[in-house]
DNA sequence: CGTATTTGGTAATTAATATTAGCATCTATC
DNA sequence: GATAGATGCTAATATTAATTACCAAATACG
């Protein structure tokens, strides 16, 4: 480069502050063992700030830039739901022994903010990156992430090319075990209220539901699947629709807790009691679920475990071209008091008359 | 320095990778317009990583280190309570227009981790720092924070020397307005269940309580102040103690929502109804409060506003020696259904016989 | 087969910063 | 009022990294 007019050097600061370049170096680096008066220090700092000193050109984007054990954690949203916090906590716990520091930035799913956030993270010299999204989904990893040349793990999302380790909740298994839990309590006529069906999670939980039915040799009845939208309102409406059926279900698998809240309301309005008249299970284990009456049986999202998994799979040997399978972690069922065996009379109808002892 | 054995330079990498220093520079900087084969690039990266290349020495800790608009947010705990997240969200909203990126790190109140966290934050070249604690309290700001030479704001904490702008909730005003709310509903015999009294927040809320009584010319009765510990259990015990009083109160100001939950339980067990037999107000506006029966009147902690305030007061002109007053933001009361006028009969006793129309 | 062009580098130069050594000036001390 | 530090700084130098200019081998091509 022939002309570099923009760059501010220590020489410029020295000229502005009326001292030597060496003095500027001493001040800005706070070099121990040098004697510079406070006045000169102030003048230097002031000049540096006024001129917008940016440090040396020699700040290579190279790996291990000074800080070891700093792991970047990029997530699209922090405040909207607790999952991100839980995952961060899991990551923190897992890296506790190693003394790692987590640096968290929000990408806000914004084409302007995301590169800024990632740059802010990386220019600090992180040694690894965890990239998380709030909603489980396939993503296109931006090039400025994939070309970072540091170990990277995807959390709650994955790319089509499987170029990075990725971990997501096992929603299929979760839907399956929720449904199986109802089946083992003797239910045969089990309804489900889905989320917005275009979302991966909703499809997977439904798949799990069907799989559990198939495993137990219970025929699938499309009448018992109502499409919701994760909201309590949809849960209410769907439950009402189910109750109006000629053969109403004896149990409802609500595919998230908010839907279950609407379901609770509808059952109350219909004069039915949980779990005597109707068993209900939710999904997500939101804080409120344990305070419902009766406390809701639901599945915990494994975000804590996913955070831990991510840390444990930050493998430095990134063989180029390697392909990783997507890891799926179990959503464990927390059993509370919203599930019971169906009433004998109801059960007899579908059980062909023989009741269990 | 005569011997510098530790420092890894591009020369070292060049030797290890079997190429020139220039080639290393090209590769690590991804300099456009240079032709380096992929094999050489790989060798260079591998060597750089193996040797632990840390970048140039010339990475001055100077101001404005490359990244403008990156604000560090250090907080002791992220996961234990939602306040930190709310404050971060407030800060994010406030800096939205400016396009700032927030970089969040947890200090974990740990003498080992905190310096690491702060260093991770600052070495990225943040232009400002917000330092937050979960519990409102006076702190000793570590020297590596106070000597950072960037605009700094304290959130939910403050130093004895007032050397930095600081913002905390106005707990005194909050306690006062909670109590006043009960007074305006006609209550004269108002109890309070405190938190752990060594905590600033508990003391301040109690002070607000006393101040509200004094303003309304209601004599302070020590019998009506029970020391709790923020827990539901303490709330239960304290309420029972209050109910056993010769002249039980008609309203209870629980100094946090969890205490109020215990209080609700105790009242239920005593066969009393809220708000007909006893008015209750809480504090903190936890998620659960709106789902209690009846929904709890409580005060919202102003963490969102505090986050915004912090961003707005990141003033770059840090005149050395300047003193800042501690800003206090209002805890606004959210009125739900746990407060009503006292029963006429109860009120008559203390009202001297004349009831309001 | 000679020549042009691309590929893949190096050597030398330059820019920027860190560090060492030393030089005035002040200040306390006898 | 000489003198021995201590203080506050600069000049010179050493390191390090970025960049330019150039070079040799491989490849394409008529």
Short description:
Chain A is of the alpha/beta class and 357 residues long.
SSE topology sketch:
The structure is a homodimer of 357-residue chains.
Chain A: H1 10-17, H2 21-29, H3 38-51, E1 70-75, H4 83-94, E2 101-106, H5 113-123, E3 128-138, H6 143-146, E4 152-158, E5 166-169, H7 171-184, E6 190-193, H8 200-215, E7 225-226, H9 232-243, E8 251-254, H10 257-269, E9 279-281, E10 298-299, H11 303-312, E11 326-329, E12 333-334, H12 344-351
Parallel strand pairs in A: 1-2, 1-3, 3-4, 4-5, 5-11, 6-7, 6-8, 8-9
Antiparallel strand pairs in A: 10-12
Helix pairs in contact in A: 1-2, 1-3, 4-11, 7-8, 9-10
The structure holds a DNA duplex (30 and 30 nucleotides).
Oligomer: homodimer
Give the topology string of chain A: H per helix, E per strand.
HHHEHEHEHEEHEHEHEHEEHEEH
Classify the helix fraction of chain A into a percent range: 25-40%
Q: Count the helices of chain A. How many?
A: 12
Strand order in the sheet with the most strands of chain A: 2-1-3-4-5-11
Give the mean pLDDT of chain A.
85
CATH superfamily of the largest domain in chain A: Response regulator
E-strand count of chain A: 12
CATH architecture assignment of the largest domain in chain A: 3-Layer(aba) Sandwich
Low-pLDDT residue spans of chain A: 1-5, 60-67, 346-357
Remind me, CATH topology of the largest domain in chain A?
A: Rossmann fold
Gross morphology of chain A is elongated
What's the main sheet of chain A like?
6 strands, parallel
The largest chain-to-chain contact, stated as pair and per-chain residue counts, equals: A-B, 57 and 56 residues
CATH class of the largest domain in chain A: Alpha Beta
Output the radius of gyration of chain A.
Answer: 28 Å
Structural class by helix and strand composition of chain A: alpha/beta
Strand coverage percent of chain A: 15-25%
């Amino acid at each position: 480069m022939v002309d570099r007019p923009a760059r501010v050097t220590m020489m410029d600061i020295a000229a502005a502050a009326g001292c030597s370049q060496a003095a500027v170096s001493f001040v800005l680096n706070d070099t121990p063992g040098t004697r510079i008066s406070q006045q000169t220090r102030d003048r230097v700092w002031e000049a540096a700030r006024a001129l917008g000193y940016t440090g040396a050109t020699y700040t290579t984007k190279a790996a291990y830039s000074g800080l070891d054990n700093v792991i970047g954690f990029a997530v699209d949203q922090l405040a909207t739901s607790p999952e991100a916090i839980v995952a961060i906590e899991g990551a923190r716990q897992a890296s506790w022994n190693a003394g790692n520091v987590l640096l968290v930035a929000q990408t806000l799913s914004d084409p302007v903010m995301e590169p800024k956030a990632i740059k802010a993270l990386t220019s600090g010299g992180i040694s690894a990156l965890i990239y998380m999204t709030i909603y489980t989904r396939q993503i296109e990893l931006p090039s400025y992430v994939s070309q970072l040349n540091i170990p990277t793990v995807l959390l709650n999302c994955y790319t089509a090319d499987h170029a990075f380790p990725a971990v997501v909740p096992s929603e299929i298994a979760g839907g399956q075990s929720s449904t199986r839990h109802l089946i083992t309590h003797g239910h045969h006529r089990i309804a489900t209220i889905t989320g917005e069906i275009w979302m991966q999670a909703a499809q997977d939980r439904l798949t799990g539901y069907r799989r559990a039915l198939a495993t137990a040799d219970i025929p699938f009845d499309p009448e018992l699947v109502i499409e919701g939208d994760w909201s309590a309102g949809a849960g209410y409406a769907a439950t009402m629709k189910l109750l109006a059926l000629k053969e109403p279900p004896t149990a409802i698998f609500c595919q998230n807790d908010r839907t279950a809240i609407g379901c609770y309301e509808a059952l109350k309005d219909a004069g039915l009691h949980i779990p005597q008249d109707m068993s209900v299970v939710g999904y997500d284990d939101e804080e409120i679920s344990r305070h419902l009456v009766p406390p809701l049986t639901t599945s915990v999202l494994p975000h804590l475990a996913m955070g831990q998994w991510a840390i444990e799979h930050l493998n430095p040997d990134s063989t180029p071209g390697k392909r990783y399978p997507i890891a799926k972690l179990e959503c464990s069922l927390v059993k509370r008091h919203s599930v019971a065996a169906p009433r004998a009379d109801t059960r007899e109808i579908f059980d062909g008359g023989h009741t269990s002892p």
